[in-house]
Amino acid sequence: MSQSAWFNLNSENQIFLTMEKKSTKYPETSIRTAEPADADLLVELGRASFYEAFAEQTAPQDMEAHLQKAFDADEVKEQLADNRILFLIAEVDASAAGYAYLHQENPPDCVTAPNPIQLVRFYLRKNYYGRNVGNSLMGACLDTVRSKGYQSVWLSTWELNHRANAFYKKWGFEIVGEAKFTVGSDVQNDFIFARRI
Question: What H or E segment, with its residue span, contains residue 117?
C-alpha cells in the first residue's frame, strides 16, 4: 500500500494523525495524548493487551499476580500527573486500540545513545494486530519525543516475543543488552533495544 502520514501537535499538545491512502485496507488511526480521565481506560487496555499477548505462555497465577501489580488505577493516575511521563492512545473508529507509555528515566549502562527516553509499554489489543495501528502509534511516539528534544529511545521486550522483536527491528531498533523481567514468580530474559531519532 502506498501512503503518506504526518503528525501535528495542537495547542493542547494532542497529536492528530492524518493518513493519505491509496488503499482502503486499513482503517484510519488517530493518536491522542492521554488525560487524567483516561486512567481507567489505560488500566483496562493494559490488562487486556498483556493478557491477550502472553496468556498462552504464562501460568495463570503468574498472570493474575502481574496484572494486579502492573496495572493499578491509583498508580496510573499518579503517572498521568507526572510531567516526565507521556501516554499516547491509539484509536480506530473512536475505539481505543492500544497505547504507548514513555518515561524519562535513567537508562541501563548498555544504552549509550544520547538524551534517551524509555518506551516502557507499547500495547495493542489483539484484534488490531496487522492493521497498521502499531506503525501509526510508533510513528507518533518518535515524532512526539523528537519534538520534545529527546535524541534516542530505548525499551525492553521478552526474548521470546518474536512478533514484537521483529516489529522493533523493522523500526530501526537494535539490541544493545539484556535484562531480567518478572511476571509473577516467573523470571524472564528481556532484550534491551535502542535507536537514535
Answer: strand 116-124
